[in-house]
Amino acid sequence: MKFSLSLYAMAIAAIRLVAAAPSAALSVTVYSDVNLEGTAYSPPLVVGNCFVLPREQRNIAESAKISTGYGCYFYHGTDCGPGQTGIYLSGTVNVLPPGLYNNLGSLWCNELP
């Protein structure tokens, strides 16, 4: 019985660790071709902060992959939105929508509820 209680206590501790673990890190990769092909670029994003793509990465993205648990507003301008409407995307985006296709300038990401 003592052995069984020890295993039970270890299982409960492991469950608590998994439940308390932070979600996976934010990761976004944009690709220069559709269907996640071509040159890949993964910007160093921070949740809740605007990220302006470097000049050499602007206006070439055709597809994107956003890590599970996150969503991002994609903007054609380089200021994350004042005066423009971002397009909210999450998951795998095989073809960026019109307005962003070869026209991406900045991103703003958050954790999904």
Summarize the structure.
The protein has 113 residues and is an alpha+beta fold. The protein is built from one helix and eight strands, in the order αββββββββ. It has one helix at 2-20; strands at 28-33, 37-41, 50-52, 63-66, 70-75, 87-90, 92-93, 106-111.
What does this structure look like?
Keywords: Signal. This protein has about 110 residues and is an alpha+beta fold. It has one domain (about 25-110): Sandwich (Gamma-B Crystallin, domain 1). The chain has one helix spanning about 1-20, and strands at about 30-35, 35-40, 50, 65, 70-75, 85-90, 90-95, 105-110. A hairpin with a 3-residue loop joins strand 1 and strand 2. The longest helix has 19 residues, at about 1-20.
Number of helices: 1
Order of helical and strand elements: HEEEEEEEE
Q: What is the makeup of the main sheet?
A: 4 strands, antiparallel
Tally of discrete structural domains: 1
Q: Percent of residues in beta strands?
A: 25-35%
- Rg estimate, integer Å: 19 Å
Mean pLDDT figure: 84
The CATH homologous superfamily corresponds to: Crystallins
Number of strands: 8
CATH class: Mainly Beta
CATH architectural grouping: Sandwich
Q: Based on helices, strands and strand pairing, what is the structural class?
A: alpha+beta
Our measurement of the CA-to-CA distance between the termini, rounded to an integer number of angstroms, reads 42 Å
In helices, the fraction of residues equals: 10-25%
Low-confidence runs (pLDDT<50, min 5 residues)? 1-22
General shape? globular
Signal peptide: 1-20
Keywords: Signal
